[in-house]
Design goal:
The protein has 160 residues and is of the alpha+beta class. The protein folds into two domains: 50 residues, no CATH class; 102 residues, no CATH class. Helices cover 44% and strands 21% of the residues. The protein has a four-stranded antiparallel beta sheet, covered by helices on one side. It has a three-stranded antiparallel beta sheet with strand order 1-2-3, covered by helices on one side. α1 runs antiparallel to α2.
């Protein structure tokens, strides 16, 4: 949609420039505003397409691996998670406040880390339905349940 919008504005700018009418200051301001809008739309398209195909997360039996962190996030450190679907699908991971994740390094994936709340937000751009994030929710939930059950089992065996 953004690329179509940018293309439309570029065509309007081209049509305005190629007319033989006398150009005044209002014409110049409108061409500049349309140019800025089309540049913004093209920039957003570039950022979105740059992140497509980059690894968002890898699910292993012991934890989640994110490209922005060197450390694996064990499932027992994930308190809760949610998947939101407003404009884009987003996976929000709420981690244990005592868990120290380490330094956030830049990556191509759209991952945000809120260090104060120990929260990770992963934005998923779905192109033609290739990524089915809601289907992965049950798998993530099962991994978290198994990890918490493993901790309880370890505590139970230590007491005996």
């Amino acid at each position: 949609m953004r690329s179509l919008l940018a293309g439309l504005f570029i065509l309007i700018i081209y049509a305005c420039i190629t007319t033989d009418k006398a150009h005044d200051s209002e014409w110049l301001i409108s061409v500049i505003i349309l140019s800025m809008i089309s540049a913004f739309c093209l920039f957003r398209c570039y950022r979105m397409y740059k992140s497509i195909g980059s690894a968002l997360l890898t699910m292993k039996p012991r934890g989640l691996i994110l490209p922005c962190f060197d450390k694996t996030i064990p499932y027992e450190q994930v308190n809760t998670f949610e998947i939101t679907d407003k404009m884009y699908k987003k996976l929000n991971l709420y981690l244990n406040p005592e868990f120290k994740l380490g330094k956030f390094k830049p990556c191509k994936a759209k991952i945000e880390y809120n260090k104060q709340n120990n929260q990770i937000r992963i934005t998923v751009y779905e192109i033609r339905g290739k990524i089915k994030l809601p289907e992965r929710a049950s798998l993530i939930s099962n991994y978290i349940k198994i990890a918490k059950a493993r901790i309880k089992l370890q505590l139970f065996t230590k007491e005996r």
